[in-house]
Write a structure and sequence with these properties.
By secondary structure, the protein is of the alpha+beta class. It is built from 4 helices and 8 strands. A hairpin with a 7-residue loop joins strand 4 and strand 5 (120-128). It is globular and about 35 Å long.
Length: 171
């Protein structure tokens, strides 16, 4: 009986707090959400390429206004029901790290910050896998701003490379 009363009180509390507008569920950050179907990696890349040329926007995650790097990666994967971090720093410890010969389209490439190698500062999505000569699509904030494709072997990226991760385990 006490358990039933406790459940009723808990339910009422959730309903009241939910209606007040003060309660917001915190999205769980996971590396794999879809277990019922396979994500087609080439389809994921084709979707990402639709946004080539979209402008860079600090903290942006909207294709109409612009993207920052993690906003773009999050947006692309969310379209395929994969919930990834919204901050590039959070990519430091998710997914399965890969050796260069294991890189595949749809894997996420993670870079150190320009000024601080102790921090993660940039992310992108492998769109042409070829080890450390792979190409990736990302939202750049530098001289050429916006969604573009770059080579992992370019000096500015090769020296900042941290790791490449598979967030589509078994996909």
């Amino acid at each position: 009986m006490q358990i039933r009363i406790a459940l009723i009180v808990l339910f009422m509390l959730v309903v009241v707090v939910g209606k007040s507008g003060n309660w917001r569920p915190v999205p769980e950050i996971v590396t794999q959400v879809r277990t019922d179907s396979v994500v087609d990696r080439s389809e994921l890349i084709a979707f990402a390429k639709k946004y080539l040329g979209t402008p860079y926007r600090t903290a942006g995650s909207n294709p109409k206004k612009g993207f920052d790097c993690s906003g773009f990666v999050n947006f692309v994967f969310r379209n395929f029901m994969i919930n990834l971090p919204r901050s590039s720093r959070e990519f430091k410890s998710i997914g399965t790290s890969l050796k260069p010969e294991e890189f595949r389209e749809g894997d996420v490439v993670v870079f150190y910050s320009f000024r601080n190698r102790a921090r993660i500062g940039h992310v992108g999505i492998i769109c042409e896998a070829n080890g450390m000569k792979s190409k990736f699509i990302h939202s750049a904030s530098g001289q050429h701003k916006g969604i573009m494709i770059s080579s992992l072997s370019a000096a500015m990226y090769a020296k900042r490379f941290f790791r490449c991760v598979n967030v589509l385990e078994g996909k």
